[in-house]
Amino acid sequence: MPFAPVTAALHRLSDRPRLLLLIALLLGLLLPLSLAPFYLWPLAWVSLAGFFWLAHQAHSGRQAFWLGLSFGAGMFGLGISWVFASMRTVETGVFLSLLLTTGFCFGFALLSAIQAWLYQRFLKPRAWALTLAAPMLWVLFEWLRSWLFTGMPWLLIGYSQTSTWLGQLSALVSVYGISLLLALGAAQLARVLVQGAPARAGVIAAAVLTLVGYIAGALLPADRWTEPSDRILAVAVQSNIAQRDKWRAAQLRPTLDFYAQQARTQIEADLMIWPEAALTARPDRLATYLSQLDALGLDRQQGIITGIITSEDGRFFNSLLGFGTASGEYRKQHLVPFGEYLPFEAQLRGLISFFSIPMSTMSPAQTAQGTMPWSYRGVTRQLAPVICYEAAYPGLVRKLARDSDLLVMVSNDAWFGDSLAPHQHLQITRMRAIENGRDLVRATQNGISALIDARGRVLQRSAQFEVATVTGEVELRTGRTPYQRWGGPLWLLLPLALLAVCLSRPVRPATAD
């Protein structure tokens, strides 16, 4: 490959700042295309290598900041454009929806800008800057997004590999470890763009290591670490009730009738899952209905789990309740800001009418939550319950899943309409199955409901925006994956490695690594 003309042309771009901003925007747009529903996973390397190259070529911290902001605008502007759809679902005005969506995306784009600035300002002059520091900084910022301002762990680059053999290694290192593997490879591509032929050996080494990763994933799939103990017939029920109608008083009786009909007809299922907040009245108002549901499940030796809103001491909780051979209550631990609760409520509620939306006064579980017991063939099994947004938090799911036989996830993606979010959410859910080596049953209000195996493969799924029952066999599994046993050691290693780079000797610009 004629490296010299290519690198020379790229270096000349550094003197055209406006064109660089456009390139940064386009590179940011490529990253969501590597994820669901597009699945163009090779673009993950292209987008990431481009970001590293931009940050390294920047002449100043200020230029790096603006390039990072432009990249982030493309990445988040497309990747979380579904925020607009969620606002329109609750009939927020078009102008206000656009304004708030733009502000939301811009806030996360600022993190990309700060990341590029930090690299240019503190890491670029050091040895191993592109080789190690840039990819480690990327993963640290992915982790930062998982908790800053209550967290938004969306668009993690590791999710691009959910359907590939490399993705199976998340059972060892979690999705963040997959992100790091991708970032390390992308960094070598960026070195070629910066240095040309001298970086060729690094690219070859990265390609070999990546190939080894794919082979390792093929030889050590996620279900290699856990063992099947039984097979059950599971059903996930999808009601397709419009979000605008769900909480209206007139809809309560049709909702109860729909689920009662599902309970009467799903005779053969061992376990039936209804979506998040499927029943739209508190348990005390549905005492007779729930008592009959419990009796029906016991008579059939069938476990039934439904989403419902519970209350205690004036607080309301987004919960799951077990009936029949299933029992217990699980309360959602990680709520959706501006969806289930309003941060800074006293200051904001009177400012924008959008914030006065249904279910905006939930409380998180006041104590740590655990698995839900389920009796199957005379043996008590444990179900790991996860509600909606919680699926995006690997650590939370890991704690629930490590002593469980099956993952049970419920959601209400009706908020997001016909947008990218339901597809991205399903991909995230699949990665949780891989990390934990567990089969998974997923029930949603209007799609996408699915049965997923321990390798993250979709066994059965529903279409969106239709009434559906997703029925099929899934495995109960025991044992722990390496990730479940040891968690993510990355958070101990990455800061130390970054510190080592910062303290390393500066190198001449001509040979900067």
Q: What is the topological layout?
A:
Layout: H1 3-13, H2 17-33, H3 43-57, H4 61-79, H5 82-89, H6 94-123, H7 129-145, H8 170-195, H9 200-219, E1 227-238, H10 243-246, H11 252-265, E2 271-273, H12 287-300, E3 303-312, E4 315-324, E5 329-331, H13 345-348, E6 372-376, E7 379-387, H14 394-401, E8 406-411, H15 421-436, E9 440-444, E10 450-452, E11 458-461, E12 468-478, H16 482-486, H17 490-503
Parallel strand pairs: 1-2, 2-3, 7-8, 8-9
Antiparallel strand pairs: 1-12, 3-4, 4-5, 6-7, 9-10, 10-11
Helix pairs in contact: 1-8, 2-3, 2-4, 3-4, 3-6, 3-8, 4-6, 5-6, 6-7, 7-8, 7-17, 8-9, 8-15, 11-12
In short:
The protein contains 17 helices and twelve strands. With 513 residues, the chain is α/β, with parallel strands linked by helices.
